[in-house]
Amino acid sequence: MLQSHLDGMILRVKKNEEMFKRFQELDMRLLSLNSLRELVEHIYTDAQLVFNLESLSLVLADEKSEIKQFLTEDGFRFDEYQSVIVLSQTAVFKDKLGLSQRIVLGDAEKVLPKEFWPDNTSRPKTVAIIPLLRRGVYLGCMVFGSDEVDRFQAEMATYFLDRLGKVLSVCMENTLNYEQLRRNSLFDTLTGVNNRRFFEQRMDEEILRSLRTGDSLSCLFIDIDFFKKVNDNYGHQVGDIALRHVAEQLRSQLRSNDILARYGGEEFIVVLPTASEKKGIEVADRMREAIAKTPLSLTSGEVLNLTVSMGVSTFVVNEPGVSKALGRSVLIEVADKALYAAKKSGRNCVVSGGELVAISGAKSQSS
Q1: Beta carbons of 213 and 321 less than 8 angstroms apart
Q2: What is the rounded CA–CA span in Å between residue 91 and residue 63?
Q3: What pLDDT sits at residue 323?
Q4: In degrees rounded to 5, what are phi and psi of residue 340?
Q5: Same-domain pairing of 295 and 332
Q6: Which is the catalytic residue, given 41, 179, 206, 266?
Q7: Whole-angstrom distance, CA of residue 325 vs CA of residue 175
Q8: Which of 290, 312, 288 is nearest to 220 (CA)?
Q9: 157 in a domain, yes or no?
Q10: How many structural domains comprise the chain?
Q11: What pLDDT does residue 11 have?
């Protein structure tokens, strides 16, 4: 009996050592990440593996809608991570969890608020709700779900979960601070859209994504027609207002995962992930029409009619997994030449430069 008891203790110690090692590795991975998108994706995938979960949800407090914007601009796909929930009504965390940082364990039907689990998704049998707080402020919570009725019970020890909550809270706070600083350096302060540096970084990422998935990608190069005359006739302050007006109209016609940036001067550039040449032309023409039909009213009572010319280029991947990436400069150059053709055609129009087809192991070619 003593030997059996001793063997059982040794087995539990070994299991705890293995769990501690996996947990330490998770700690180090989370602490090494910089971007919010990476952090959310790693939490979602790694936590399920480390804790052997059937399901989980990550709920983020986002009163100012900044987190959703940060993730969307970095290419995070909410449709692929339906259990990542962003709540603007942040009072729900205090109402449901209090401020004690106490982990809530038990029957999901009794302890899991409906706000903390994705709609149209089957609820687990038991849950562990881990609060994420820093300096008394809720950053969100994480919910571990299990289909086993005895997996998460109120009397169980919560050392690993407590530690995960504290580590993750620190990571979230640091990452959000980093994202704020990064956005300040990657946004155009005049128009409020992304700047060229951010665009170049994201376009490289989207090209690589297209190579993996086989989705097309369209690039739009945009120039405000006769913008020099606006500055000459009305002054640079009105010119700045016109730039902001055009940026707002362009942004209003885009999806949340499309990328709009000010490229320089009166030029803007757009990347449309998953968009074919036909779709790229349709979106470009819709943007062009929105600006043409929305005159800018000045404080003087005058009305300023603005138009834009656009060039389109499209990256096509016939075979996902090709080894040769297409440089962003090639796509931009083709769109720029198409823009020049639009200018020569009388302005206020859209011209496509055609498709650039990726070929495995070789240079990309224009069709």
Answers
A1: no
A2: 9
A3: 52
A4: -60, -40
A5: yes
A6: 266
A7: 30
A8: 312
A9: yes
A10: 2
A11: 66
**Looking at the structure, do residues 174 and 202 belong to the same domain, yes or no?**
no
Dihedral Cα 51, 57, 63, 64, nearest 10 deg: 90
Residues 162 and 214 in one domain: no
Closest-CA residue to 165 (of 89, 81, 93): 93
Q: What is the pLDDT of residue 366?
A: 45
Domain end: 185, 218, 234, which one?
185
Is residue 190 in some structural domain? no
Q: What are the helix (H) ranges across the chain?
A: 2-32, 36-50, 66-73, 91-97, 108-111, 159-186, 196-213, 227-234, 236-252, 277-292, 328-344
> For residue 365, what pLDDT is reported?
47
Does 200 lie in the same domain as 181?
A: no
Residue 233 near residue 49, CB atoms below 8 Å: no
Among candidates 53, 54, 127, which has minimal Cα distance to 96? 127
Alpha carbon distance 154, 110 (integer Å) = 12
pLDDT score for 362: 46
Whether 219 contacts 338, CB under 8 Å: no
The C-alpha R_g of the chain, in whole angstroms, comes to 26
Distance CA 287, CA 281 (A): 10
Residue 205 annotated among the catalytic residues of the structure: no
Spans of the chain below 50 pLDDT: 362-367
Q: Residue 53 is which amino acid? A: L
Pairing of strands 84-87, 308-317: unpaired
Residue 191: inside a domain = no
CB atoms within 10 A of CB 131: 22
Residue type, 38: E
Expressed as residue numbers, the domain containing 38 is: 2-185
CATH number at residue 302: 3.30.70.270
Question: Would the pTM count as exceeding 0.85?
Answer: no
Asked, for residue 231, whether it belongs to a domain, the answer is yes
Which pLDDT belongs to residue 20?
A: 65
